[in-house]
Design brief:
Chain lengths: 161, 176
């Protein structure tokens, strides 16, 4: 009798064990299922905030403990009915503009916002000016075009292959 | 004048190299805190040693004090700790601890083994006060003046240099 039972017990144990990962999955997914709309807003706001521990990630992407805490903070504030602006203000009051993935436009960040465009415009201006100046030069300022490969006059000057 | 034109690229390169060189020497981990010059956040937390006794921001008004954020799980705190113990022994300024996301048992055991430089430690089990202080890496050290305004913040372990060159002169000027 006992001998017959043994394999069954083992099978049952295996079955229970194989279900364990499912149990943990269910645990993690629970808060999302609880209120998907809220969770979506939490993630949307978190995606705008930099994780200070792993600086190239948002707190939505990061698994760092601080990111989890800050996500919980965002969730809690949303539950209290606070707006996205209020939450962002709360975070910048504590961690500075650095937490924002989109830096705000102000005097200290003007170079950051307009620097690249200014560089591009400057480079285009320099290009236009130098091209115009070159167009006004007389012909003898340029090298003769004899080096062109399709010029028959230049062909004999080349070493035979 | 025209003959010096060839120096323009060199000058541009020098400017670029200066910017990049300065960038290399910046530490991106050290985020400037917006809290400096602002009043310390309100708090009222139980003490690590005595859950029934609490400390609030108001209790500490009127004196210059140091807040040192620590945790038993934090390796860098262990590195900094002997300096804190030594500094506390000089009794120039009261040091309060903020036991950040720790368990009571582990925190007490850690202090028992390595020495307790703190007048008291606030027990911040869920890290809420840590967020209010803008803490993102332990250890962090704050200097708070008589009016309860944060005057200085150091991220990472305090070194003897930081203590001698920054914290001590500041404390002296705040206390005078």
């Amino acid at each position: 009798m006992n001998k017959l039972l043994m394999p069954w017990r083992r099978l049952c144990a295996l079955l229970v064990l194989s279900l364990l990962p499912l149990a943990t999955l269910a645990n993690e997914a629970a808060p999302v299922a609880a209120d998907p709309a809220l969770e979506k807003r939490v993630m949307a706001i978190s995606a705008e905030l930099r994780c200070l521990v792993c600086q190239n990630q948002t707190i939505a992407d990061s698994h760092a403990e601080l990111a989890v805490d800050l996500r919980n903070q965002v969730r809690e504030m949303l539950r209290k009915g606070q707006s996205q602006d209020e939450i962002v203000a709360y975070m910048t009051a504590r961690y500075g503009d650095f937490v924002l993935y989109r830096p705000p436009l102000k005097q200290s960040t003007a170079l950051l916002w307009f620097g690249p465009a200014a560089l591009l415009i400057g480079a285009i201006l320099v290009l236009i000016i130098s091209l115009k100046r070159r167009a006004r030069l007389p012909d003898d300022q340029f090298e003769p075009e004899s080096e062109l490969p399709d010029d028959p006059a230049a062909a004999p000057a080349r070493p035979a292959p | 004048m025209k003959s010096l034109k060839f120096l323009i690229p060199l000058a541009l390169f020098a400017v670029l190299a200066l910017f990049l060189g300065a960038g290399l020497n910046l530490n991106p981990r050290e985020v400037p805190s917006p809290l400096i010059g602002k009043p310390a956040p309100e708090f009222k937390l139980p003490q690590l040693h005595d859950a029934s006794a609490s400390i609030s921001r108001q209790d500490l008004l009127g004196k210059v004090w140091i807040l040192n954020v620590w945790a038993s799980w934090c390796v860098a705190c262990r590195e900094e700790h002997p300096l804190m113990v030594e500094y506390a022994r000089r009794k120039t300024v009261p040091i309060y601890g903020l036991n950040y996301k720790d368990t009571r048992e582990a925190g007490l055991q850690w202090l028992g083994r390595l020495g307790n430089p703190y007048v008291a430690s606030l027990f911040d089990v869920d890290g809420k006060l840590g967020i209010d202080f803008g803490v993102y890496g332990v250890p962090e050290t704050f200097v708070i003046d008589r009016q309860g305004v944060i005057r200085f913040k150091h991220i990472g372990p305090v070194t003897p240099d930081v203590l001698r060159d920054k914290i001590e002169p500041l404390i002296k000027s705040l206390q005078s």
